[in-house]
Amino acid sequence: MPEPVIITCAPTGGIHTPTMSPHLPVTPEEIAQASVEAAEAGAAVIHLHARDPQTGRPDPRPELFQQFLPRISAACDAVVNVSTGGGLGMSREERLRAAVATSPEMASLNVGSLNFGIFPMLERYESWKHDWEPEFLEMTRDFVFKNTFADLEYIVKELGGSHGTRFEFECYDLGHLYNLAWLIDQGWIEPPFFVQMVFGVLGGAGADLDNLVHMHTIAEKLFGDDYEWSVLAAGRHQMPFATQAAMLGGNLRVGLEDSLFIGPGELAPSNAAQVAKIRSIVESLGRTVATPAEARRRLALKGADRVAF
């Protein structure tokens, strides 16, 4: 029988903007509350970004993370995962600031560079709460998210070697699986590997079930018994792909970073609502949901007592 499903929740991210949903957490208080509620609903891992409390723009400052990370860890036992993706357009150093300062159990890592296009969302809104929002979206028409092999080496050695942080390896395309295999071949990271397969982002693998099945097949060949796999899909594909992952024996991610909706045309009222919905689906399939303790065991994490927040 498959092991319990590890549900990751990404409450705010660095892609959607405040105009798009009144439920998107922006302030440290909102991010903390959304995270704790998601954990109570069944999320074992919380994947975190920070935002400027006044404008909602993605913000890399460690002092912002320190305003919500301690609150989360004090209120629940969920694994805290700090993004190294930051916000689109940030430098590598900016993207790493929070993770280096807080030394979390987990950090995300995009395993390669890619065109990362969110500019099509411009067409959906006629007015904006903040001037930065349309400029931010339009910028991605001519933007490459950069994680070269040199970047990947630096990040896994800095966070993995110096801090004992383990990674949510975000693979947006087939080549990213091979990039991860190359990192493993260098001896820079040790199993188990947590592979997050990402679908539906313009510039990466499309949200097509054949792509999910093929990436899973290749991951099995590359990593064998040394990895845990999880799936996230952007927008309307979120719940169907999360369900497919559960059906295939994998893990999954939901949250307002990946989709603002909980059903066709219906904004999700909270991150916890998305977690509760997918948990209900998972349990209806006869699978159970992993606790944070189970996630820590399976992902070989260092423990919440060895972080810097």
UniProtKB/TrEMBL annotation:
It comes from the Bacteria. Its cofactor is Zn(2+). Gene3D superfamilies: Aldolase class I. Keywords: Metal-binding, Transferase, Zinc. The keyword Zinc applies. Pfam families: BKACE. PANTHER family: 3-KETO-5-AMINOHEXANOATE CLEAVAGE ENZYME, 3-KETO-5-AMINOHEXANOATE CLEAVAGE ENZYME-RELATED. One of its GO terms (molecular function) is metal ion binding. This is 3-keto-5-aminohexanoate cleavage protein. InterPro entries: Aldolase_TIM, BKACE. Signal peptide: none annotated.
